């Protein structure tokens, strides 16, 4: 399948660079280039592209505003490009929350360096993704007398599509939720902004995990990424631990690395969930959790942006129950109830 792609950027130089870079791949056809939202709207109607690459900053209407309109009126795969994605974490997280497939950083200089193969891989992956119309999530009803077991904890892994998925999922968590540790594949510089965003939108306290932080009810810990994996350690008093080590399953932090530590230190008292994402990170660790007696959940194909990580886990026999996103929070909480 040839991926028909529309390039939207106000800079003629950048439009040409993106179009040239994508055209080097035989599986991608650049069907048009637009200098802003107005011309892009007409091209979307006439050309019906499979994927759009979209600049975050444009005169008149910025890329985030245009992205919001696209995802509301004509949901389709969008890869955001901007120099802001390296330093403007807030804009990047907002784009992902609005439903962008992923964000890719432009070269800091218009000439020299190019865009690399990463953009072509993203565009092709975006073409295969599922785009869900944006809806206002309805948080599941949590019993007023909900109390988690003293030994219960939740471990979650996600990647592509995980930002909007985690926002929806954690919206169903009560303020006294079981201690929850999350690995979301994301550049290190974005994590504090993402954790702060989750903290504002969720009832529990959400923070970036740090070595020695005790796992407490009502707290959610997001792996910081970069040069460290995030694990848990300890018996009755569990804590977060950051470990500087080589990548595992192609990632650092690795979902596998978190899940393996949970299997070791929490065993049957833990619940694991693997959500939308490319690749297979987390499948082996989730299987180890299941073998240790933990209940394990995989997001189903229809509700995933990318049914990669959950599919790998399911095929490995690591998933106890496969559920749509709308039912996962309630099931996680029920499994941890006292």
UniProtKB/TrEMBL annotation:
PROSITE patterns: CHEB, RESPONSE_REGULATORY. Its EC number is 3.1.1.61, 3.5.1.44. SMART domains: REC (SM00448). Residues 148-338 form the CheB-type methylesterase domain. GO terms for biological process: chemotaxis. Keywords: Chemotaxis, Cytoplasm, Hydrolase, Phosphoprotein. Pfam families: CheB_methylest (PF01339), Response_reg (PF00072). It is found in: Cytoplasm. Involved in chemotaxis. Part of a chemotaxis signal transduction system that modulates chemotaxis in response to various stimuli. Catalyzes the demethylation of specific methylglutamate residues introduced into the chemoreceptors (methyl-accepting chemotaxis proteins or MCP) by CheR. Also mediates the irreversible deamidation of specific glutamine residues to glutamic acid. This is Protein-glutamate methylesterase/protein-glutamine glutaminase. The gene is cheB.
